[in-house]
Design a protein that fits this description.
By secondary structure, the protein is mainly alpha-helical. It is 55% helix and 7% strand. It has a two-stranded parallel ribbon with strand order 1-2. The longest helix is centred in the last third of the chain and has 16 residues, at 81-96. The chain is elongated, with a radius of gyration of 21 Å.
């Protein structure tokens, strides 16, 4: 963060709360949703990493996690991975362009206004 790099966390809903408490101005929250409940289940099954019982628990956890969607700045419905990634990049670009995030913009504006005053007849 000190180097101006973005850091991406894939964390449950409690994690963003903790980050927001410590560094609100530097955190943008994005909630990624599956397109349907059936697709969420299918994606978990396709991974072939978890037992049926673990998948059942993950689906149960999704009920609680999705209920927190209003706490996020942005919502992405992941119907297509490439499109969702492009939308995430668009969110990051938009956030970087916010006036309050442009650290040296005030000096730039003052210089621009001064230059304009000099060239106006």
């Amino acid at each position: 963060l000190r180097e101006g790099r973005d850091v991406l966390f894939a964390i449950a809903w409690q994690g963003p709360r903790q980050l927001l408490e410590k560094m609100r101005d530097d955190v943008v929250t994005v909630f990624v949703l599956p397109p349907t409940a059936a697709e969420l289940k299918a994606r978990l099954e396709r991974r072939a990493e978890d037992s049926a019982e673990i998948i059942k628990q993950r689906l149960h956890n999704a009920l609680e996690e999705i209920a927190h969607w209003r706490e996020y700045d942005y919502i992405l419905v992941n119907r297509d991975l490439d499109k969702s990634f492009a939308r995430l990049r668009a969110v990051l670009t938009a956030e970087r362009l916010k006036r309050v995030k442009m650290l040296d913009i005030e000096n730039f504006i003052e210089q621009l206004l001064g230059d304009l005053r000099k060239i106006i007849p």
